[in-house]
## 1
Amino acid sequence: MPKSVPPVSNAEQHIRAWLAEFVVGLNLCPFARPLLGAKNLRIAICEDTAPAALRRAFLLELDLLQGSTEQEVATTLLAFPHALTDFEEYLAFLDQAQELLQQSGLEGLVQLASFHPRYRFEGESENAASHYSNRSPYPLIHLLREDMLSRALDDFADPDKIPDRNIETLGDIGAQELERRWKAIFSL
């Protein structure tokens, strides 16, 4: 499990390395490869710590995404390098973000995906390799366009098997090796 959070000055660099090494490199998300170096992949860094500022950052990104074309902003990764380090606190904020999404009338248009340095699936052992499928360098919310996701799923055979394939891939690598690779991201 990641033990410390790296300095914020390298946040975007760490996120891009995580995308390249874990998300795309291990094929955890088969739809991510085309966006890896694309200009319409937005990585937003919120350096605030106050809850109201975190909500405001989320709403600003939500507004930017819905007010942009897919060619301008395909998807947004919103990272919080100084906040939400406690996983339970992060999950509570994620619930708030989901409520804000519903209140804004964008449910069904935008979907949220969750990633955290200490992500842990309920019911799995603390050291399970599977946790790395949702571990990111910083607490992060991925804002996805539903129509874009639907198109990607329509073109992919057996999308329901992705989570099981990820668990198998990560299990084959093992938690110790994943931890070594994880630490390498922060040496950049």
Note: The mean pLDDT is 91.
## 2
Amino acid sequence: MRPNQEIFFVAGEPSGDLHAAGLARQLVRWRGLKLTGAGGAEMRRAGVQTDIDSSGWGTVGLAESLRRVPYLLLQKGRMVRLITRRQPALVLLADFGAFNVRLARSVKRHCPGQRVAYYFPPSSWSRQQRDWSFLAELTDLVITPFKWSAEILSACGVEVQWVGHPVIDRISPPTDRAEFRRQHDLPTGAPVIGLLPGSRDVERRCIGPQLLAAAEVIKSSLPAAHFLWSVWPPEQPGRLDRRADEIDGITSLGNSETLIMASDMVITAAGTATLEAAAAGCPMIMVYRGTWPMVIQYWLSDFGTQFYAMPNIVVQRSVVPELIQWDVNPKRISEEVMAIYHNAARWDQMKRDLAEVRAALGPPGASRRAAEIIAELLGLSSDRPHSAQSTRQHPAEDDI
């Protein structure tokens, strides 16, 4: 173990910030560790000293990403200088592959002996066979949430451990959704429909207005329906959030987990929120709509998968509806909501399928397992408090 017990995190978008925060909460069980780096509000709440605020770094699409390149290059250089000067015990990358892979290359070039670990490696969700051997040169360890990701990376010579997905620890299906809503001072009348337009600016611009308009159409068919709107960022509501507040029958929430667990159904942007809904056993419709450059990129790209909603990718079949691009409009969204809500057999089948998705994400304790793997890498076993229970055992084949 190096005398310097600093772990330098780098997370650059809300999902990575959330996963890194869960890992940080587990790492504080080891005395003497100093947690620093680049992150957002979740990591700060978890006790990480964020030298660099990465809130708002996340983008979708080539055009949006290119606009951020100059700024992100400056931030990359700043981080390399910090790491070179501090020489932390570990640089711990979380998600944000387009940036973090380049950062890892720079770190290894300037500090050849620097330990680097990757939590939620690039495209860990994808089942496409690719050459990931370069990660073996850039990292000392990769920790992945998906079993197929571990198999693909291992075949490429990467030192990798599979721990399962931490969403299982954060979200569970409520025993009684109506009672859950009462506890959180939310409307108890059915149905309650969650609206999650995403966390990136471009997602909210393209998807948010369609969801608000869809709510009006749905309400014309289901007058008793109430809607829960996901505010992002919670501490600084934007124009779209203020518009949602002005619409009758919509309640705004800054906590997406509470929103999902309180909803009978959600309409959500692609990404982590679809796995959160699956973990909560909440029926959903996934939507994806972007700008014209994003549309062109979408049609020209080959993502190596026939699915885009994470629950569908996990079990490799259509579990939840996917509305893409121009299908993300008030008429199509409301039609899909009505088709699910008024079809008891389809509703029940989706609930069963989502339970299967949850089971496929591995057993509880992913963040704890990841923390213990990192502690072992750094030789921290002797520093572990007596109250910390060892969970070094990885998920077994029978667990998924």
Note: The two ends are 35 Å apart (CA to CA).
